[in-house]
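[scheduler] slot 2 assigned
[scheduler] job type: sequence-to-structure, two independent chains
[scheduler] chain ordering preserved from manifest
[runner] begin chain α
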Amino acid sequence: MNTTLFAAATPATRMHVVWDWNGTVKDDLDDHVSALNATLPALGGEAVNRETYRAKHTVPIPNFYARLLGRTITEQEWISSDNAFLAHLRAQPVRVREGAIELMTALREASHTQSLLSLCPHDTLIREVEQADIGHFFDRVEGRTGPSGGTKAAPLATHLEALGLADQAHRVLLVGDAIDDADAAHANGALAVLHTGGLHHPAKLAAAGHPLTDTLADAVVLGLRLAASRRAHPACV
């Protein structure tokens, strides 16, 4: 990737990119499918393939299990399954999506800022970011510290507050792979662009009507373009 992809930002055009982790910066669809298949038998479920995983994946995650099993799981089943799922994931090597590091480099060189927000456990996120050696790109790296199974809207609000951006959400772009990412951004007044290479089926993302691209680079380019349009025509966005 050409690291001069973006024009140098000015104080008026500088954006802050909030990256999603699983399915976005971390290329881990196959790991998630494998981890899910390691937990489903204990719940009476059958193994799924990539297409089924992406088509039925949803947030909050207990709803995902309900879709797969045809029933609501109990709280104890959720706790046991989530622990087993996360243990399986932690055993897998960390793979950063192709082109992500070059893209982050280009954003930094253009004077845009970046952070990482995930609903995976905070200690796991910190360890994986350290393994990938990409922490230096981010002003803040934040994972989940409370109960699992929630959505990203409230964590994003806390994240932006910690970054001093709670009242500057107009210059925040969230790049993710889930409808919940877009919903969280909109709930906080930020922009969101989703990509099709993650944990959610492209058809489902397209049907939701959010800005959607096939690559992370295209997502950032589109996000910066949408931000410029919002600056130029604030009443129309």
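[runner] end chain α
[runner] begin chain β
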Amino acid sequence: MKIALIAHDKKKPELVQFSIAYKTIFEQHELYATGTTGLKITEATGLSITRFKSGPLGGDQEIGSLIAKNEMDAVFFFRDPLTAQPHEPDVTALIRLCDVYNIPLATNMGTAEILINGIKRGDFTWRKIVHDQS
């Protein structure tokens, strides 16, 4: 599966810890991330991650482009709902694209736990069918 990892600044440590905890699952998949988030996860885990620009500089849109082309299977986006984000329209667009293209999206630790365990069990094999029909 192709998995995107994104986190707002105050949530980056949480996503890094999550990535450490589930490294054995993540290393079986193709990982993508926005700039700083990807760097921090790679430094902490050694995972191979394709990095885009940081979110405010277009990284969210780059990942959104992959979603629109049916080239992303799941998104872990640890959002900070208590801090204003200068690129909020990009964040909203990314979430909307996940809804439009039925991409599983985890925006917090609780949902992320469910999603990663579903990935581990193979619950998202329907995504392969979607790719095969493209």
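[runner] end chain β
[qc] chain β: The chain has a mean pLDDT of 91.
[scheduler] slot 2 released
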